[in-house]
Amino acid sequence: MFKRHATPATSPQTYTYALSEAEWREKLSPLEYQVLREAGTERPFTGEYEELEAAGTYHCRGCDAALYSSGKKFNAGCGWPAFWAEEATSEGASTLEYIEDRSLGMRRVEIRCARCGGHLGHVFTGEGFGYPTDARHCVNSASIKFVPEAEG
Ligand SMILES: [Zn+2]
User: Fold this and answer.
1) What is the dihedral of CA 48, 68, 34, 61, to 10 degrees?
2) Is the dihedral of CA 7, 41, 122, 13 positive or negative?
3) pLDDT per residue as tens digits for the range 79-116
4) Active-site residue set
5) Which pTM value belongs to this model?
């Protein structure tokens, strides 16, 4: 079901939220583990959030950091949830880490959760979707968890 395309470059010591490999395996489903900890990619059009338009926040499945909001989600037709920007931390920093990924003979930018190092997907630019950042954060549904906005 998954294609592995990048080295598991996460080094737990560098992240504020760190678990042992055994703890990660216990906390995450096999699918979530493959994506978040081994930089796997779910097949397009299979993730649960690709078409979700409900209002709310998307949290990291590894550490629960709030990474994206529904207000910056758009339908890119690419088969994965797409956002044009991430959320900021309470200190105003990015909630993500951007890492050059040269796997598969391509030059791409990998995005990871800055708190736990979990792999989220890749970010692409210059595709002309017309949103304020010109970026498409292509995120695996398996790496995020949707929290609906409280009603009322
Ligand atoms: Zn995280």
Assistant:
1) -90
2) negative
3) 999 999 999 988 999 999 999 999 889 899 999 999 99
4) 138
5) 0.89
Instruction: Tell how far the Cα of 16 is from the centroid of ligand 1, in angstroms.
Output: 10
**How long is the chain?**
152
Residue 5 has pLDDT above 70, yes or no: no
For residue 8, report the distance from its CA to the centre of ligand 1, in Å.
15
Distance 45 CA to ligand 1 centre (A): 23
| Helices of type H across 44-144 | none
Phi-psi region of 151 (alpha: psi -120 to 50; beta: other; left: phi over 0): beta
Q: Quickly state the pLDDT bin for 8 (edges 50, 70, 90).
A: very low
Answer whether 114's CB lies under 8 Å from 66's CB: no
Element (H, E) at 67: strand 66-69
How many angstroms is it from 114 CA to the middle of ligand 1?
7
- Spatial separation of the C-alpha atoms in residues 40 and 31, rounded to whole Å: 9
